[in-house]
Amino acid sequence: MTTIKLTQYAKGAGCGCKISPAILESILSSNRIVAPVNSNLLVGNSSNDDAAVYDLGNGSALIVTADFFMPIVDDAFTFGQVAAANAISDVYAMGGKPITAIAILGWPIDKIPSEVAGQVMDGARSICEKAGIVISGGHTIDAPEPFFGLSVNGLAPIQNIKQNNTAQDGDVILLSKPIGVGILATAQKRGAILEGHQAILVDQLTALNSFGELLGKEKCVHAMTDVTGFGLLGHLVEMSEGSNLTANINYASIPKLQAAIELAKQGIVPDATYRNWNAYSEKVNIAASVDAMEAFTLLPDPQTNGGLLVSVDRNHVDEIINLGMEHNTTLTVIGSFIAKQNPILLIR
Predict the structure, then answer these.
(1) Does 76 lie in the same domain as 178?
(2) Are residues 130 and 241 in the same domain?
(3) Integer angstrom CA distances of residue 12 from 64, 225, 257
(4) pTM, whole model, 2 decimals?
(5) What positions carry a catalytic annotation?
(6) Residues 187 and 287 placed together within one structural domain of the fold
(7) pLDDT in tens, 41-75
(8) Least CB-packed of 276, 281, 286, 301 within 10 Å?
């Protein structure tokens, strides 16, 4: 039987499918809600946050998000797992608990058997089960390229909601996963992934960011987001601009996949990396002591289901790191927020 390699049916991969930041801003510029038109809308599209948040009027907030993309791995079951974990992550990044999901599926029925789409759904259900939710419905279309994702709803006490634009001067910045999965995914698509690296890729892509729900309960956590298609570079810029601060980052401290560093040296870099760099390069200063080429390939590398990027009161950093260890989550200090200056992102 012929093995279906899903990545060969799509031009993009995972969150690298995102429209470039510059083009996205152009699309949304006339559609931004300057202020919530409904007082119950606590977080809308006036900021670049991970999800919308609606006040239910009983002290709780409804978190609403949607995320879908083209295959980032060849195996259908694994693709479903990755897409589900990535979509659910937006609820965790807001400090919430997911409660239900709706499937979004596009499938080229004339090219790939329908049973393969069923395997995608099976993979998504397995991740949703780990998150304690079910896929309660969905929508499908006949599409020229396969894509899949979820619309996810979550709940949280209003005081637990974390946004990406509420960091404070002096906060320490933590990251929960290494960067570089975009490079590994590109290597897989090109048939150049090294032995043993496939498991590293899949493990990170399918790991739930459920620790975010616990961070939502911590008052010392001032801001939070997850690192996805715009890379660590882009999401640091969003947090800095939204919070009117500058992020001062220690490049050596950033956790990186060694496999990604090796592959990048061979010129294996996602196309989205260049788009991300072009969008954000004027807002970053990289010190001469930093390996500029390595930083260029890793900082804008598009992540799929990437780590939580957390802004924490500097007096409670050890407390949060220890909490992470208790829940099998490694949090690494990568820098801090300081008073705003230009550029707003410093890599040292």
Answers:
(1) no
(2) no
(3) 25, 23, 21
(4) 0.93
(5) 15
(6) yes
(7) 999 988 889 999 999 999 999 999 999 999 999 99
(8) 281
